[in-house]
Amino acid sequence: MENVIKEILTHIGENPNREGLKGTPKRVVKMWKEIFRGYDPKQKPRVAIFKNGADGLIYDQMIIDSGNFYSHCEHHMVPFFGKYWFAYVPSKKGNIIGLSKVARIIDYHAAKLQIQERLSSDIVEDLWNELSKDATPPLGMCLVMEGEHLCKTMRGVKKQGKMKTSFIKGIFNEHQVREEFLNLIK
């Protein structure tokens, strides 16, 4: 791979033997292993799930997590990044997910070449399946992602703006539940 990076540097008009670039091919290969770890199933985080009520509290209300994500466009291989809002309503006889695991699953799925629409879908389907293992599935799940795509802002049309996607399952398809979620994340 390091030789391929040297060829790319030459192709764009650089001298891969220039002092500032001598270590670049090695650094790029190392970086790619980190930022594209989503292709390695061994690096998929283990999702900690807990039986609802195991700690004495049965919770069947909306649980919301938010944070940032970073990914790469599969069409141009440049970054897109932004914020996410994830919510679910656990079943009384279902499972609860460990809070940090939501962020870890989002990071894992984002760590590959993606389109934001697929990223949203893959995350929800994965977390839904995890919460449904040996238990009643959650009552509903929703993920909203807002991303800035450098393939739009730094090249091509060169326009500012963000893309929002959502993926909804279960009771989040009901108007009242969806409205509650959207009001909570404003």
In words, what does this structure look like?
This protein has 186 residues and is an alpha+beta fold. The protein folds into two domains: 2-35, no CATH class; 49-184, GTP Cyclohydrolase I, domain 2. Helices cover 35% and strands 26% of the residues. It contains six helices and seven strands; from the N terminus they run ααββββαβαβαβα. It has helices at residues 2-11, 24-35, 99-110, 116-132, 150-153, 175-184, and strands at residues 49-51, 63-73, 79-89, 95-97, 113-114, 140-149, 163-170. The chain has a five-stranded mixed sheet. Helix 1 packs across helix 2 and helix 3 packs across helix 4. The longest helix has 17 residues, at 116-132. 24% of the residues are buried. The mean pLDDT is 96.
In a nutshell, what does this entry contain?
By secondary structure, the chain is α+β, with helices and mostly antiparallel strands.
Which features characterize this protein?
2 domains, 7 strands, 186 residues, alpha+beta
Write the layout of secondary structure elements.
Elements: H1 2-11, H2 24-35, E1 49-51, E2 63-73, E3 79-89, E4 95-97, H3 99-110, E5 113-114, H4 116-132, E6 140-149, H5 150-153, E7 163-170, H6 175-184
Parallel strand pairs: 2-5
Antiparallel strand pairs: 1-4, 2-3, 3-6, 6-7
